[in-house]
Predict the 3D structure of the following.
Amino acid sequence: MLGALGTAAGSWIKVASASPDMFVVAFVGQTLVAMSQVFILSVPARLAAVWFGPNEVSSACSVGVFGNQLGIAIGFLIPPMIVKNHDSLDEIGHDLSVMYYSVAGFTTVLLVLIILLFKAEPPLPPSLAQAEQRAKEDTNFVGSVKRLVTNRGYVLLMMSYGLNVGVFYAISTLLNQVVLIYFPNGEEDAGRIGLLMVLAGMLGSVLSGIVLDKTHRFKETTMALYIFSLLGMVAYMFTLSTGKIGIVYATGALLG
């Protein structure tokens, strides 16, 4: 509820920012949306663990991550279609207003649905592990954090995953600028490359969840994903300067 509330509030703040002299307002709204994401990104894993059995939990988690990635994909696809590169700032402002009002309205509907319909947990635990967890619910947050930061495996996983996700978001954020350096007037190409990257990632996410539910080979699956991420990054980096946009589409999908 906090995540949905912050996202909706930040979206409505951005509605007031569709003007060249209102960048600070846009930044405040976007910062609130970004802070709210902290409450949302961790939901899929928790929700999957609480609502699904041991042979469904990885698939359920991957579907939750899939939804987050779908939002990013839509963010790549739709804004270049709504906000055109007009010569007139007034026309750009009008396009931004249409986009901001659409997002604000949609996030408000989601907030209302979450308040009315979202439940914390099912009446009965879906697995023995969840039943035991409910019986001895640990509310000591500081103790929980201490146990995590002294667990070498957890720290390595957190750092490696953080680097991987950080690189992905950096590429996503700067994709438009990077593509335009090599392909002038390629705003829509940048959006489509980002969309393709995320769609490929969504497919990989769901397939990984299915593989994990079937095999429970977590370390091997993680290693394979990290190796492919590295190879995809190298391929993407070296094909940008070829001048062939089709190749960049292909390596963007591989990276995703």
